[in-house]
Every structure is written in structure tokens, then in C-alpha cells.
Amino acid sequence: MSTESLVIRAKAICDKNGARFTSIREKVFRLMAETDGGMGAYDLLERLKLTEPAAKPATIYRALEFLTEQGFIHKIESTNAFMLCHHFGHHHPAQLLICDNCGSVSELHSALLQQEFSKLATERGFKITHQTIEAHGFCHKCQQVA
């Protein structure tokens, strides 16, 4: 899906939710859409500064918080990075495959895995409010090189 079509979808969701998709939020969203895999906040900030020289860390963190709240991006906790969710429009559990060599990230949606995980949590009296499962390893391309 093209960056433009993703932006149009994101704007429509923001309009529906009564949320403001400001120009800074859109620029950060576009940077995320043009990135394969995850990107750290300071790397995003450096790229944003190319068009917004006055941008500060707070600028990027506020935009990332908004994009996360809207379900447009996932935070990759283990690498402290963020990635665009191409399935946005609703909050959902995600499973991420993270290549430790090239940094690529693939998002999976296994209902079976999510159900089993939720069942095990419930059996222990735990209520899940947000779920992202991360697995580290090597993508197909990097396995071929090694």
C-alpha cells in the first residue's frame, strides 16, 4: 500500500475519532510509512528536522504517543523503536518477528496464539490490556547470507 493511501486512511480514522492529524503528526506518520522495520525516536527526530528544523525530542514523543493511541504504530519494546502498523484502524494484539541482523520487522496476527496467551493469563487471574509479543532471530534473507 502506498504512503499516500495510508495517509488518506489515517486521516479518515482521525476524522471519525475526532482526533487532529496535525502536520507534524502527518510528517512523522509519513516517515514511519517510508521505513521498513522499526525506527528509534531520535532517528525519527533527525529525519523530521530535515523539514522541521525547530523540532525537539518532545515534538517526536508527542507525535509517537498520538500515533500509538490511534493504533497507527506499534512500539517495539525490546529495541525501543516504533513501526507502522499496516493493519491500523483498530487496536489489536500483534506478534512481531524482529531480525537481529538487518532490523527488519514483520507483523503477524495469529488468533490462535492470542487466544492461548489470553487463556493462560486469565487462568492466572491476569487481565491483559495491551499485547505485543516479540520474537528475535534472523529473517530469510539474513539466513541465506550467513
TrEMBL record:
One Pfam family this sequence matches: FUR
Going by the UniProt record, its keywords in alphabetical order are:
Cytoplasm, DNA-binding, Iron, Metal-binding, Repressor, Transcription, Transcription regulation, Zinc
Subcellular localization: Cytoplasm
Record keywords: Repressor included? yes
This protein's major location comes to cytoplasm
- Give the record's family classification: Belongs to the Fur family.
The record's NCBIfam families line, in alphabetical order, gives: PRK11639.1
Assembly information from the UniProt record: Homodimer.
Supply the name of the protein: Ferric uptake regulation protein
Organism of origin is Arsukibacterium indicum
Q: Which gene encodes it?
A: zur
